[in-house]
Write a structure and sequence with these properties.
This protein is α/β, with parallel strands linked by helices. It contains 11 helices and 18 strands.
Length: about 375
Amino acid sequence: MPQTVKGVIARAKGAPVELVDVVVPDPGPGEAVVVVQACGVCHTDLHYREGGINDQFPFLLGHEAAGVVEAVGPGVTDVAPGDFVILNWRAVCGNCRACLKGKPWYCFATHNATQKMTLTDGTVLSPALGIGAFIEKTLVAAGQCTKVSEADAGAVGLLGCGVMAGFGAAVNTGGVHRGDSVAVIGCGGVGNAAIAGAKLVGATTIVAVDVDERKLEGARHFGATHTVNSRERDAVEAIRELTGGHGADVVVEAVGRPETYEQAFYARDLAGTVVLVGVPTPDKQVTLPMIEIFGRGGALKSSWYGDCLPSRDFPMLVELYRQGRFPLEDFVSERIGLGDVEAAFEKMHRGEVLRSVVEIAGGTSA
């Protein structure tokens, strides 16, 4: 029988979010119902509320989550009721041209649940990134459930988006290795995850760039060896000075603005790599001299979800967290309830938090 649970929706562009009753169907073929224990408040959720993703309101917000599988539909074999899982928005299909080329982290035909969650009046909800996890229970494609060792849901759930995006931008897309120099422009949750990832794999010089001293202090905690306040110093000159006059081997741009992308482009060493993980709005454009693009060599890359493969990366990072080697809990600024999402958006907009985490159904597991 369908269940009615509490969830957070954005009913109209720019309107405050609402806590409402949501109808969750029983899982059909290839689907699972998950009891959500915790879900991070991500900038992407705010973009949905502001109409920056699309206009398919109302949205069921939330996507950066962990919980326990309650039920599965016919044909599901990879997860079972009782499994502790992190939800992902890259449920690889195995059959698209990217998957068939052996690059499933680029999968172009990822799965979402076929059935729809609705309001009690039958209004169909659009789940954020195909998940919708500011809710007591959610319906997803079974492939969106990645089984991992049990841990604090509020911490490991952040791998479902922001932390994975940043870590993967540095390690997977940027290919940072031991001895490399790395610069990260923008030190929110994604940027700090890139810093933590660079530290984990052995980068020796890690330069954090931001305009907020509070964020730079946080970047030092996650592993930055140097910090640059770009309100006070030219970021490109500072990065070059800190890397022997050459520029960084890898520069991660975690802002998504033309001016910071240009800084990243000129702050890398010859044959170095720029990774864009900050998400620009559709109106943003950048202009660079073609002779500089040619003459500097290297690579200009975009990082989609940290080029992650959830089945490979989530269990590994959870194990590193359980060993005390990857500080997922330090990304959690506060733990809140379902009724506090609107206030969390305001704190995020003011730059007061790395991540607010909504705890649901008892919150953490251990």
